[in-house]
Amino acid sequence: xxxxxxxxxxxxxxxxxxxxxxxxxxxxxxxxxxxxxxxxxxxxxxxxxxxxxxxxxxxxxxxxxxxxxxxxxxxxxxxxxxxxxxxxxxxxxxxxxxxxxxxxxxxxxxxxxxxxxxxxxxxxxxxxxxxxxxxxxxxxxxxxxxxxxxxxxxxxxxxxxxxxxxxxxxxxxxxxxxxxxxxxxxxxxxxxxxxxxxxxxxxxxxxxxxxxxxxxxxxxxxxxxxxxxxxxxxxxxxxxxxxxxxxxxxxxxxxxxxxxxxxxxxxxxxxxxxxxxxxxxxxxxxxxxxxxxxxxxxxxxxxxxxxxxxxxxxxxxxxxxxxxxxxxxxxxxxxxxxxxxxxx
Length: 344
Prior knowledge:
The protein has 13 helices and twelve strands. With about 350 residues, the protein is α/β, with parallel strands linked by helices. The chain folds into three domains: about 10-60, lambda repressor-like DNA-binding domains (434 Repressor (Amino-terminal Domain)); about 70-175 and about 310-335, Rossmann fold (3-Layer(aba) Sandwich), CATH 3.40.50.2300; about 175-305, Rossmann fold (3-Layer(aba) Sandwich), CATH 3.40.50.2300.
C-alpha cells in the first residue's frame, strides 16, 4: 500500500512530498535540505527520515540558479603535495573539517596552491561562482590571497594567525603556540638542562615565529643557560639537518625543543647517528602530539595542539559567514598541553 509520499517507482520525489511525509511545512523541509539548523530537533529528524524513505535527491543545479550557491567550499593549503600528504597535521585538520561539514550540504574540495599561478586559479574559481567560501592553511609571509579572495566576494577563514600583524582582518583559528613552546622549554629547564637548543619552523609563518618567541620567553633572565637556534621548515629532513648543525655548534648540548613532531623525529635520528642517547644525554620535545609522537624510539614528549578541533572551528567560522555575511568574528585561540613521554 502506498504511503503519504510518492514511491520511488512513480517518479522523482519532490520537496513538497518530503514535507507531506514529514508532516511539516515546505519551508521547514527546505531549510533542512539547505543545511539550516534553525529548525526543531523533531522537525530535523522527521524531514531526514522522509528524505531517506522517499529517496529524495535535491536538485542542486536548479537551486543554485535561485540561491547563487554552489554548495562547494575550498580548503587551500599553501604547501606542496609531498608536505600535505606526509605530515599528520594536515590530515587531522581535514578530519575535523569533514566532521563539521557533514551536518551541512557543503562539499569540501582540497587544493594545494603554493605558487602565484595556483593562487590566481583559486581566485578565478571564486569570481566565477564555483565556490561559496574558502579556508586557508599554511600561509607564508604577507600573502595577499586572503584579502584578494575577500575582494572577490568570498567568505574566508584561516588556520593560523597571519604572520604579518594586521595583514588581514579575516577570522582565524590557531593554537596557543607561544604558550606551548614556553611550557616545553620551561620543562626542560626544570629537569636541570642548561644547554637548551631549539629547531624553529619557518620564520615567515606565525607558528614558527610564535614557537620561537615561547622558547625565548621561557629562558629570558635565566643565568647559566646556553641558547642555540637552528631553523627548519617543519619537515623531518630539516629537523635532522638542523640537529646536525646544532651538534656542530655545541657537542655538549643537553636538550632540544623542536617546533614540530616531524622535526623532532629528524632530530632523534641525527642524535642516534651521533651516538647521543635520548634522554640520558639529550632530552627532546616536539610540537603537535601527532601519531608520529607515539611511534618514535624513544616515544616523543610533545606539545599537544587540538588539530581536529581546529578543523571543526575553522568550518564553524566559514559557516557563520555564509549564514551572516556581515558577521564580525573574533579569532579562536585554542589551548595547548605538554604530553610527557620517554624522550624528555
